[in-house]
Write a structure and sequence with these properties.
Elements (H helix, E strand, L loop, with lengths): L3 E5 L3 H10 L4 E5 L2 H11 L3 E5 L10 H13 L4 E6 L4 H10 L3 E4 L4 H27 L11 H14 L5 E4 L6 H10 L8 E5 L5 H9 L16 H4 L4 E5 L6 H13 L1 E2 L8 E2 L3 E6 L3 H6 L5 H7 L2 E4 L7 H19 L5 E2 L1 H9 L5 H15 L4 E2 L20 H19 L4 H8 L3 H10 L3 H4 L3
Parallel strand pairs: 1-2, 1-3, 3-4, 4-5, 6-11, 6-12, 7-8, 8-11, 13-14
Antiparallel strand pairs: 9-10
The structure holds adenosine-5'-triphosphate.
Adenosine-5'-triphosphate binds next to helix 7 and helix 15.
């Protein structure tokens, strides 16, 4: 099906020019605010180009801005590209603040506007696909993200979901390890049985054993009745052991026995109880170094990590940052019946520049308070508690040297991640020597890579 694009412009010459250049789309026209709204209702276009100088006041942007507000209110997902007079930056920025997707300054150049429309359409489609995915796939659908990095993880998780292989989810705090564990469970033949999660770091060492394995009446003072542990309550289903790296070394031996023999003994009990459960573990710790330091058993490490899955941090998923932010914005807007509908340009830049040490959880927190705090319909960087650091944000530049530098630093970051943070491999992937790589990292002041964080 051909995509429909609505062109709102009272200049017949421009209407004609766009009709001839946008042959890949179904182009419909409107020449003032009311006909624009009528066309919007009728055709539901994903992309609209809107000249801000509309009659009855073509010399000013007021009518166009009103049209923009009405379009966004009626169909908030529409990508509106506003067309402004030359040098009318103020109104262009105002339009972005009101929720326009992008702006374009006259005179109109067919190729450029085509490119803009194409990009807007692609984004609209991606967002739509994601909404459909989230609705139709209750399992992995809860994982939002279009980046190659997260999609590769999703595919891996989907593949192992149907098996009983022990999976070890590795990733920083807040990257979604528990979400993945649940999704794997919901995609597995055990989906109608319980999913039981336990966080090994949040339970005092002396209680963890009885929490996991249960206890018999009289096993210790206060054990008034026989109580099932988390392992037994997960019978038939999936047990999610979060922060497994924090499991006391003494308990690791008992854990290993359960994983190998699939039987447990309650604390104070003498009977072996067979258990049929799938185990998924997660940690933000470096288990390999813990094994080297002997604070984590090597045999247990191999037993729980038959297939390890690395969940990338949010800062390495550029593409997902805005998608997730928009998703949470919509979610919290509904939850708190708030006004905030879109992000200002500076908010977008600030989010892209931020390092997100708390990953998706941090983003949820920032978005929640921003939606509550925002004064108008547009969330500003300030509302998010972020400041767009000049130079950190991606510059809209055509200066070749800057474009080249930006592309280089991006490629370095990507290669570094793909190479598992190994410098020799990074250099190899980039086709440069290690000294060259180090001098580039210095040049672009990539402190995190330098320090290996
Ligand atoms: N891809 C995703 N799409 C949507 N929401 C996500 C995604 N990943 C994580 N979340 C949300 O982010 C929050 C943190 O995720 P989760 O608790 O799974 O992270 P975690 O890695 O287990 O964190 P921790 O190590 O601190 O326990 C949750 O509220 C979760 O719903």
């Amino acid at each position: 099906m051909t995509d429909t694009v609505l062109v709102v412009d009272d200049d017949l010459g421009i209407q004609k020019q766009l009709k001839w250049s946008l042959t890949d789309y179904d182009v419909v026209f409107a020449d003032d605010r009311s006909s624009a709204i009528a066309q919007l209702r009728r055709h539901e276009p994903k992309v609209v180009t809107l000249d801000l100088g509309l009659p009855p006041d073509p010399a000013n942007a007021s009518e166009g801005l009103m049209a923009l507000e009405e379009i966004i209110a009626l169909a908030p997902r529409t990508k509106v590209i506003v067309v402004t007079g030359n040098n009318d930056k103020e109104n262009a920025l105002r339009a972005i603040d009101l929720g326009a997707y992008d702006f374009y300054q006259k005179p109109i150049d067919s190729d450029t506007i085509k490119l803009l429309i194409n990009r807007a359409l692609n984004l609209a489609k991606l967002e739509q696909e994601n909404r459909v995915l989230a609705k139709t796939r209750p399992g992995m659908g809860r994982i939002i993200g279009n980046s190659d990095a997260i999609q590769a993880v999703v595919r891996k998780a989907e593949k192992i979901a149907g098996t009983d292989i022990s999976t070890l989810l590795l990733g920083e705090s807040g990257t979604g390890k528990e979400v993945f564990a649940r999704s794997i469970h919901e995609h597995s033949p055990r989906k109608d049985k319980p999913f039981v999660a336990i966080n090994c770091a949040s339970i005092p060492e002396n209680l963890l054993e009885s929490e996991l394995f249960g206890y018999e009446k009289g096993a210790f003072t206060g054990a008034n009745k026989t109580t099932l542990g988390k392992i037994e309550t997960a019978q038939g289903g999936t047990l999610f052991l979060d922060e497994i790296g924090d499991m006391p070394i003494g308990l690791q031996a008992k854990m290993l026995r359960f994983l190998q023999e699939r039987v447990i003994e309650r604390v104070g009990g003498r009977n072996e109880i067979p258990v049929d459960i799938r185990v998924i573990c997660a940690t933000h710790r470096d288990l390999q170094s813990m094994v080297a330091e002997e604070s984590f058993r090597e045999d247990l490490y191999y037993r729980i990590g038959e297939i390890p899955i690395h969940i990338p941090p949010l800062r390495d998923r550029d593409q997902d940052i805005i998608l997730l932010a928009r998703t949470f914005l919509n979610m919290y807007r509904e939850e708190f019946n708030a006004k905030a509908k879109s992000f200002s340009d500076s908010a977008v830049q600030a989010m892209l520049a931020h390092k997100w040490p708390g990953n998706i959880r941090e983003m949820q927190n920032k978005l929640k308070s921003a939606v509550i705090m925002a004064e108008g319909t547009v969330v500003q960087a300030d509302d998010l508690g972020l400041t767009a650091v000049a130079g950190n944000a991606e510059p809209e530049t055509l200066n070749l040297r800057e474009v080249r530098e930006l592309a280089e630093s991006r490629a370095i970051r990507k290669a570094y991640q793909n190479a598992g943070k190994n410098m020799s491999k990074t250099a190899e992937l980039l086709g440069v020597t290690r000294p060259t790589l180090y001098s580039l990292i210095d040049k672009y002041q990539m402190e995190d890579i330098k320090t290996g964080t």
